[in-house]
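Usage example:
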Amino acid sequence: MQDLSGKTVIVLLSGGLDSMVCAGLAREAGARIVALTVDYNQRHRVELDSAARIATAVGAAEHIVLPLDLRRFGGSALTADIDVPKDGVGEDIPVTYVPARNLIFLSLTLGLAEARRSQDIFIGVNALDYSGYPDCRPEFIAGFQHLAQLATRDGDKGVDFAIHAPLQHMTKADIAAEAARLGMDAGMSWSCYDPTPEGLHCGLCDSCRLRRKGFADAGLADPTRYAVEA
Amino acid sequence: MQDLSGKTVIVLLSGGLDSMVCAGLAREAGARIVALTVDYNQRHRVELDSAARIATAVGAAEHIVLPLDLRRFGGSALTADIDVPKDGVGEDIPVTYVPARNLIFLSLTLGLAEARRSQDIFIGVNALDYSGYPDCRPEFIAGFQHLAQLATRDGDKGVDFAIHAPLQHMTKADIAAEAARLGMDAGMSWSCYDPTPEGLHCGLCDSCRLRRKGFADAGLADPTRYAVEA
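Running the assembly step on the lines above writes:
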């Protein structure tokens, strides 16, 4: 990671393991962190508490939690009354896909970047151990970076925006190991799409399965409390 | 305009003259209209009332007014305590530019399009009589349409999204004439960035100047009540 000392960066912080490590890498690079969390009225709004803990842990200069009620649109198991699949990670893009979510969220980070005179945006997408969401793929991130130049006043004036996706080519095991290397407590983060009434990770949704497999493959203790054991 | 009978389209509806005519053209094309208005805590929130009137006038099947508080970001005369310029339309991009606004709004329309199984989005941008905002230019709109394919599940499955910007190459006089041709009452719409306490158009901001000049150049009666006469 390049040295970002003295630079303000915008970190898209969901509260999940990936965004936690992404924020940790921005901190390690010496950046001044402005964290953005979108409260999109998601099924697993408990992740907002994790985002707040992580923002504190990385010493964020500012943490904006922005309400944006995507339940008004619906169309996803995370924003409508559609069951979260529990039968394992499949080949197709699953119903937990939220229409255009990463494009919406990156667009918001870009607006915030301009307003804070930042040109660096961090997002924790990865396209190896993931659910096949199109908006996690490298070509989407590259396309967004290109469009950022056309979409903004700063881009028009020649500022080069950089969309940093440092986990892009990591497996979930790599990410779990990276959390350990950074000395971050992965127990701060939240992954489950369908938390139990007792506030546990369900253990069966795609996101729980990927998380659990990551710690196992990395040979690391998993701090997560799952309702269903492996 | 192509025939859109039976198709659901998403219309980005600010409540201004341009979005009004844009919605009128979608209606004329026979489309079923889902209108999206973003309440971004803008200085001229009175435009939301106009958006509601226009949505009714065009017979929108659905009108979503979505709160998204861009004042949390600031960085614009429309979303922060910065004076709205009153000295005429200049060469530079003015401080009324809202960071990444059209990218944020188009991203939202794209998410809504996917959720409503629509592939057609209408936006009333034009790049002739405008304030030089980069996110009104044809290359931005084309770039967004390209990225829409990479950003979405539907795009991944081969659905071709179309971003319709039917006012792209119209002057403000053309747009005023188009409103008349469509039989729409331009008095429904709101343009002013800095409404007076009495609820009048200020008459001096860029948006008022462009609006007034449009009606004058078209040789049409201007239904607008300006605080300062020409």
